[in-house]
Amino acid sequence: MRHTLAELRSGELLGIKALKIQEDLEVFPQEIFTLSESLELLDLSGNRLQELPSLARLTKLKIAFFSQNEFEEVPDAFKECSNLYMLGLKSNAIERFDEDILPLSISWLILTDNRLTKLPNSIGDLINMEKFPLAGNRLSSLPESMQKMKNLALLRISANAFEVIPSWLVKLPKLAYFSFSGNPCSKSKAPNIKTLAMDDLKIGSLLGEGASGKIYQADSKAFNRLIALKLFKGSVTSDGYAEDEMNASMAAGSHPNLIKVLARLEQGHLGLVMEFIAANFHPLGNPPNFETCSRDTYKSDFTIKAEEILAVAKAVADVGAHLHSKGLLHGDLYAHNILVDSRYNLYLGDFGATTFYKDSSMAFEKIEVLAFGNLLDDLLRYCEDRENPLYTKLSQLRDKTTLSEVEKRPLFSKIL
Question: Which residue, 120, 152, 184, sits at the end of a domain?
Fold first, then answer.
């Protein structure tokens, strides 16, 4: 729900927990401090703010969004907000990030699409950090202090300037969702594939929408069947470059648990033509929310049998082995990116965070194995027949794939 500045000034918003105002604000409204006894979420995205006063009086503030404003540095306004755990500063013009300006309570910091060339050494003090999207900046290195981030689960450094990935980074015990495409150390390749003119397609109804694009039902004389068309929203997505996602989708090749790419649109258009997936397929889970941060959520009535968990585990491990044999790190191995039907046949989708890599140490695969282990852990929590001996065996596999010592985790081929 969006509010107005007039409503705020009239006093009729007193006591609310969440406030969202988008009115081309150039100055932070001081009236927001009248909500200090109740405000937990503040969203001033899509304005023209360049600076903020200290927000220390907002003692209950937990979540703050200031995306799509005009900040040139990370504001020194949050240090005393001891309950703040999520801060979004996406799509500003941020070049500076000073030392020791954030509260240690931060677990989710969004700095995607800015102009940062370096991070402060004090970033490593944010030991509660779980989720750190940094795609679309100008970074070429990370502070070694980040080794202290033992809870970091998701890191996005795509579309930056990294020549090499730090060796300590792949040893972080909880890192499971990692992407670094669109850097000098990760060159994506465009496979030879059929191209199709936009005019050859008849676009139908919208099937779905993600961060990077929209998927439509489509028809074309080039294919004697229903097809799907993914149109990308722009050349840069929240996870990196659209071109890298397209190349990864095509390079993934053929596998029973991957949605087949049939063609790409001709030059000048960012889009992929894919096989049409029947409507009886649906996402296995839902994306993380504010509370779960880096872990998926599920419907309140969701349950699953041990045999069904095994079917999911086999298919996901098989497609994981397939991708890594091609030097592809999926980077987003989540239940919400897996489509299943009633019999748990499945497709793994969404290559927005996928990275081409050449490292032969298997470290990137073992990061992905932790994502697999997290998926297994989630599904086991909803298992309805825990007396089944298979539940115990799957729990043992979960324990092996989630070991904090990264090098001790099994590869997908061993899991199979």
Answer: 152
